[in-house]
Design goal:
Mean pLDDT: 76
Helix content: over 70%
Structural class: mainly alpha
Radius of gyration: 29 Å
Number of strands: 0
Order of helices and strands: HHHHHHHHHH
Shape: elongated
Number of domains: 2
Low-confidence stretches: 131-152
């Protein structure tokens, strides 16, 4: 297929599957050079898509397409995590996907066109955790070593490789950031739910404040609040004491 020809969804899926299969094959990939790695992907891609002679793509074309796919999927993963973290009541899985597509379009200014690729990649923990960095040690061949060709070609291959590794690092950072953000959101939601539950319980016992159950409950709550206040005061005094000790030690002659 000539340069610039439109990619079909089935071709994108074939490329993603070929990349995942070969990148996770440690035995085959350990000593591969980058160009050889992409030649292997090209072979698998051609076997899967059966292109006509005039429609055959190059290994470099596949490499460029993969870079675009991985970059956009990383952005979509971030949007999906944000929508999931909202944990909106009554939202179905279809609603979550719809909101994710809208958020992606708002942030990127275009539709997400690699959803079928994302569905494949999300089943690969290594990709979704962003740990596809392959540029060191005995695995350097798969990630970064290129064929010994003329200097201009070698430089371009290294530049392309650096871009791929950078996308991988960004994906990992994006996932880590979303995990941290989700943790904060969930903690806030739990605190809010606890407060609501406590208020509802208090309202229940207030309906008959003179009952033995109500008296027992409010006595327990007073003790609980008092213990909480005492704990905070003790922590404050301990912090002040540590500060005073540090100040005293810093003023002592050496």
């Amino acid at each position: 297929m000539g340069r610039g020809r439109k990619w079909e969804t089935l071709q994108d899926e074939a490329l993603v599957r070929a990349y995942l299969d070969l990148s996770q094959n440690a035995i085959q990939g350990a000593e591969q050079k980058a160009a050889s790695f992409w030649d292997s992907i090209l072979n698998r891609f051609n076997n899967a898509t059966k292109p006509k002679k005039e429609e055959v793509r190059t290994a470099q074309a596949l490499r460029n397409r993969w870079s675009s796919i991985s970059h956009n999927v990383a952005k979509f993963v971030g949007c999906y995590s944000v929508i999931k973290a909202r944990n909106e009541s009554g939202k179905s899985a279809d609603d979550v996907m719809k909101d994710t597509r809208l958020l992606f379009r708002e942030q990127q200014g275009s539709e997400f066109s690699f959803e079928s690729c994302w569905l494949i990649l999300q089943k690969c923990p290594k990709f979704m955790d962003g740990i596809r960095t392959r540029g060191s040690g005995s695995n350097a061949g798969v990630a970064g070593e290129v064929e010994k060709e003329r200097p201009t070609g070698r430089k371009k291959a290294k530049t392309d490789l650096a871009a791929e590794i950078e996308d991988s690092k960004k994906l990992k950072q994006l996932v880590d950031d979303n995990k941290e953000r989700n943790s904060v959101i969930f903690a806030q939601m739990k605190r809010k739910n606890d407060l609501i539950e406590e208020q509802l319980t208090m309202d229940l016992f207030k309906t008959d404040p003179n009952s033995e159950e109500s008296k027992t409950f409010f006595s327990f709550m007073r003790k609980k609040r008092l213990a909480s206040i005492m704990d905070r005061e003790a922590a404050r005094e301990l912090g002040a004491c540590k500060t005073n000790v540090k100040t005293h030690l810093s003023q002592m002659p050496m």
